[in-house]
Automatic annotation (TrEMBL):
Annotated source species: Sinomonas terrae
Signal peptide start-end: none
PANTHER family: 5'-NUCLEOTIDASE, PHOSPHOGLYCOLATE PHOSPHATASE
Gene3D superfamilies, per the entry: HAD superfamily/HAD-like (3.40.50.1000), Putative phosphatase, domain 2 (1.10.150.240)
Origin superkingdom: Bacteria
Pfam families: HAD_2
InterPro entries: HAD-like_hydrolase_sf, HAD-like_sf, HAD_2, HAD_sf, PGP-like_dom2
Region annotation Disordered: where it falls in the sequence: 227-246
The protein's name in its UniProt record: HAD hydrolase-like protein
């Protein structure tokens, strides 16, 4: 057990990074390009978090024959302009620095395609904080993972050799809570993301956070780093550590 690091697993969109409308606006534009109806804003917001194809089926009723073209149109726009519009949420870089300084291992578990997640984190200057980044298959013509976020969270635990009593998830949607629970780890719900009213409260999570500082406090309370008290000093990742995520 002493070799197991204290691991913090983060969701991406809605937790680390604010898409700033690039996801919902991009989906709406892709639907319009292919002559398909655009759902109301509440439905578009609900599409942030789950796999894109699953959301297009559920919230936009996209016909299977049009699915590949809609996804392609969305991804092209997202890569060309959407990622650049995204921004880290206030206090997130400081939170990551605080946790790294305190001795935590950090990972990302997202249902965004893994290669795209790495590009987004690199663009936002956040990738070097993480020991590993995990996502869905890059080939979006494949069916979504049958267990959603469960296997992605499991991959983060396995890669970092973390025991379940030494790990915690941080996310903004019920999918994050479900992925954590299925792997036997607690989840901290953040209130700045895309959860619908009451969505996180229905999960009866052990902690909630209204800002990044509260999230850090909850991590240190739920998964303390034994013998290494947390520090608020800013410690940049080493070049060797940064290269692992590039």
């Amino acid at each position: 057990m002493t070799d197991s690091p204290a691991l913090v697993i983060f969701d991406l969109d809605g937790t680390l990074v604010d898409p700033a409308g690039s996801i919902t606006g991009g989906i709406a534009a892709a639907l319009e390009v292919h002559g398909l109806p655009v759902p109301e804003q509440a439905a578009l917001d609900a599409m942030v978090g789950p796999p894109l194809i699953e959301s297009l089926r559920r919230f936009a009723s996209v016909p299977e024959g049009s699915m590949t073209l809609v996804v392609q149109s969305y991804r092209e726009r997202y890569i060309s302009e959407g990622m650049a519009k995204s921004r880290p949420y206030p206090g997130v870089p400081e939170l990551l620095s605080r946790l790294r300084a305190g001795g935590y291992h950090l990972a990302v578990a997202t249902q965004k395609p893994e290669g795209l997640a790495k590009k987004l984190l690199r663009l936002q200057g956040l990738d070097a904080y993480f020991h590993s980044i995990h996502g869905a298959p890059d080939d979006e013509t494949l069916p979504p993972l049958p267990d959603g976020k469960v296997s992605i969270v499991a991959a983060a635990l396995e890669t970092n050799h973390a025991s379940r009593n030494r790990a915690v998830m941080i996310g903004d949607r019920r999918h994050d809570a479900a992925g954590a629970a299925a792997n036997g780890i607690p989840c901290i719900g953040v209130r700045w993301g895309f959860a619908e009213p009451g969505e996180l409260e229905a999960q009866d999570l052990p902690a909630y956070a209204t800002d990044a500082r509260e999230a850090g406090d909850a991590v240190e309370r739920l998964v303390p780093v034994h013998g290494r008290p947390g520090s608020t000093a800013h410690v940049e990742p080493t070049e060797a550590e940064a290269s692992q995520c590039r």
